[in-house]
Each structure stands twice: as structure tokens, then as C-alpha cells.
């Protein structure tokens, strides 16, 4: 981290932050935007809106999750996986919901955002009771593309796989 300091004035208060790091007020605006991004993205995923969900990623996305044999590359492959999941859930009668929490946001000097959060996956079998299916950690690199935040790289790990 650089020792060069930036001074910013916000409502009469001077914030000092290392160069390239957001001031508290800027971070306070960015954080809820990213929370909303994830809320919207997971709603699309759980609703099986394949193309709209894939659109929240960059064209060259790398999506690495332990439920797949190898990382998925590109939006087309992501959308295909969502449609496959929808068909599997229709056959099984199960419904999955994803909850994102404990979001840690790290702005980078190159304009990207590195995020780390917990992702809980709930399953409801048919008419049964909902239960936690998986506890995961999700780490993303977010970039601005065409005026919107998009995921360029996602790595998901599961607690039950050590």
C-alpha cells in the first residue's frame, strides 16, 4: 500500500485514505450497490432466468464451483448450466434458494472489486421442510462493464469438502 495520502472533505469532515482506496463516504455508497447486485443476481439464479443471470457476468467469465468437474467459461455455458439445474429440480421436486451474507468488499487500485462472502444454499424438497443444503464461501472479482458491475471470476468453496 502506498504511503501517499489523499484528503477528501465530506460534510465538513476530512477523511484521509491511502491513494487508490475509497474514502469512507464513497465506500458507504458502493457497499449497498454491491449488496443489491448480489441480491438481484441470486434472485435471477433461483428463478432460473438463465440468460439474465448469465448477463451479470462478463463474456469471458470463469466460474469455478466444486459441484462441476471443471470451471465453466463464458456466459453461454453459464446459461446452459442454469437450464440443466432447472430441469433437475423439476424432476426432483426440490427448490433451491441462495442467501448471500457477511459480504467483505475490497476495492482494488485497478478499479476492480474483490469480494468474499458466505453463500448458504437452502433446499426445500417437494412439500417438505426447508433445510441448509450447503454452506459455501464465494469469492468474486467484479468489474464495471457497459455501466454495470459484472463478475469476471468466481470461485466457490464448500465447507463440507474441507
3D structure, described in words:
By secondary structure, the chain is an alpha+beta fold. It has one domain: Nuclear Transport Factor 2, Chain: A (Roll). The chain has three helices and eight strands. The strands form two sheets. A six-stranded mixed beta sheet has the order 4-3-8-7-6-5, with helices on one face. Strands 1-2 form a two-stranded antiparallel ribbon. Strand 3 and strand 4 (72-73) form a beta hairpin. The radius of gyration is 18 Å and the shape is globular. It starts with a strand and ends with a strand.
Rounded average pLDDT: 88
Distance between the termini: 32 Å
Tell me the helix content: 25-40%
What is the H/E order? EEHHEEHEEEE
CATH topology: Nuclear Transport Factor 2, Chain: A
- Shape, please? globular
Q: What is the number of strand segments?
A: 8
Q: How large, in whole angstroms, is the Cα Rg? A: 18 Å
Condensed summary:
This protein is α+β, with helices and mostly antiparallel strands and 162 residues long.
List keywords for this structure.
single chain, 162 residues, alpha+beta, Nuclear Transport Factor 2, Chain: A, six-stranded mixed β-sheet, two-stranded antiparallel sheet, 3 helices, 8 strands, NTF2-like_dom_sf, SnoaL-like, Nuclear transport factor 2 family protein
What are the SSEs and their pairings?
Blueprint: E1 5-10, E2 13-18, H1 24-46, H2 50-54, E3 57-64, E4 72-73, H3 75-92, E5 94-107, E6 113-125, E7 131-145, E8 148-158
Parallel strand pairs: 3-8
Antiparallel strand pairs: 1-2, 3-4, 5-6, 6-7, 7-8
